[in-house]
Amino acid sequence: MTTAKETSNISGYHDKTPIYIDEEILQEAVLEQGLQDQAERIAKKEGIRFNEARRLSLEYRNIQKIDHLWEFSSLTKLNLNNNFIKKIEGLDHLVNLTWLNLSFNNIKKIEGLNGLRKLEVLNLSNNRIDLIENMDGLTELTILCIANNKLHQLDNVVYLRKFKKLFTLNIDGNPIPEENNEEKYTLFLAAYFQQLKFLNNVFLNEDIRSKASAKYNLDIEEMNQGALQAQQAAEEKRRREAVLQMHEDAFVEQLNGDYLYGNIIQNDTELSKLQCLPGVDELLEAFQRQLAELCNQLFEAGLTEYKRRDAEVHLFFARLDGDVTDSQRRASKALADFQMEHKQRSLEVQEAADGEKKSKADVCLREINVLCYKLMAVEFQLYSYLEETIRKFDNNISEMTASFSETAQGIFVQCRELEDSHHQKITQIAVTTLEVVAKGEAEEDLPDDVRMLFLDKNTVMDTLAASHDNHLQTINDRETQLVTRAEAWKVALIKGIEDTQLKRNRMRIADIHRYADYLREQLKDLM
User: Fold this and answer.
1) Is pLDDT of 386 > 50?
2) 123 by DSSP, 3-state: which?
3) Does the pLDDT value for residue 298 go beyond 50?
4) Same domain, 44 and 135
5) How far apart are CA 215 and CA 234, in angstroms?
6) What is the number of alpha carbons within 13 Å of residue 281 lying toward its C-beta?
């Protein structure tokens, strides 16, 4: 992946002063590589559209920092080799990148690559990297060259086994101790990388595979077993996280069980003192059981409503995508019909005699205006239709959210009623205990702190009232959290949809005007 030209220029390019990527460099690079003929003329007149560039070469430019690449969303191939780059950064927006060359730089750490989900070819050779890491997101990787770096652990290379599509690996020229024993080095990697076809530019034939399997069979089985267990644990963790996320999206997280009861009594130290009184334990158990039943009822209702909302959201976006696609199809047809005729009309203007040029150009200009009107009409029709679709969707989602909030509020009312009933029963036991203590008939095993508490009726009643208020406040807070989050989700969803469609509409209108202006300028050039 490293050419003779790259090698021969290494000493020469380091003699120059380091620079940073800027707008001028990017424009020059794009014009040099991708825009020719008509595309180049458009770029010079309208400005270069970085988001349409597919390839970009910035090698041998003494670049010190990767920057200003956020507009290159369509880029598939990027050359940044033979520069002064020290850190891999600024690549997050290059979501379509499949080929990246960062060889012959000063990079010490692999980072900033996990957003490149489509990356297939990566060249990091001739840098200062000592550890293979931070590459988990590169699931499409097929070719990796990390030769002539500072890798010193062969076991670290095993990290790359997770990339099931990797078939070419070059780690030659690294200070790995096993490289002094070429056979062991090769057999180790051939055994651990079953899918690998080429190692350090050498084909791994059947003879090498057989020797590798015989030598490392037990190690591979043990590692595979460990990997399987780790994978199962990771899958279980993802499953649990997905379930918890669904509960949160349904606004009913930690309502399936005793969570609310635990929140209610966790800081109620005074209530815990009363548990030694006859009948209090039974009351608490009944309160816990009945409150859990109400919470589970709310939890199940929340999941049911979440599924309904989720289905409605998916149906809406499917309709929206269909409407936009249909509009794009109609606009494309209008554009194609125009272009078929416009090419001939432009040719007639170009070949017309001086006396006829203006009349023929006027015809062209009228047709350009007609095209602009048609495209605008298609876009305005779509936008108006989407406004109505979004309005209906807003009504549906608002109705669903309000219905669930009402259901939740009704269950929380029952929770408060249950707490009221529980409080009254606890109070009755407390009153009875006050009478017993006042008569000196209290049980001998009654703890001293409880006995002292029940010497003062006002203190006991104030303690119970404060405990009751705290319990109700906990229930109220959970109710407020649920209702507030449900409403906030709905508002954010609708606003996000409206903002996205408004932005799309403005960009579309700007594109139509830009294209029409380009056609008019092109027509002027023919006069």
Assistant:
1) yes
2) strand
3) yes
4) yes
5) 30
6) 3
- Are the C-beta atoms of 323 and 392 separated by less than 8 Å? no
User: What single-letter amino acid sits at 339?
Assistant: Q
The residue type found at 98 is: T
d(CA 306, CA 404): 9
- Report strand pairing: 198-199 vs 202-203: antiparallel
Residue range 287-293: average pLDDT? 94
Least confident residue range of 71-85, 210-224, 459-473 = 210-224
Strands in 215-364 per DSSP E = none
Q: Helices 23-33 and 37-46 sit at what angle, rounded to 10 degrees?
A: 160
* C-alpha–C-alpha distance, residues 390 and 377, integer Å: 20
Instruction: Look at the chain and report how many structural domains it folds into.
Output: 2
Residue 462 lies in a domain: yes
Query: CA 129, CA 403: separation in Å to the nearest integer?
Result: 58
Q: Are residues 390 and 441 in the same domain?
A: yes
Binning pLDDT at 50, 70 and 90, where does residue 180 land? very low
Q: To which residue do tokens 């334990």 refer?
A: 281
Check whether 225 has a pLDDT greater than 90.
Answer: no
**What residue type is assigned to position 350 of the chain?**
Q
User: Residue 416 carries which side chain, given as an amino acid letter?
Assistant: R
Last-in-domain residue among 234, 269, 287? 234
Q: Which residues contact 328 (CB under 8 A, 6 or more apart)?
A: none
Residues 172 and 289 placed together within one structural domain of the fold: no
For residue 504, the enclosing domain spans: 259-526
Compute CA distances 437 → 217, 228, 312, 434, 440, whole Å.
79, 65, 63, 5, 5
The reply to whether 243 falls in a domain is: no
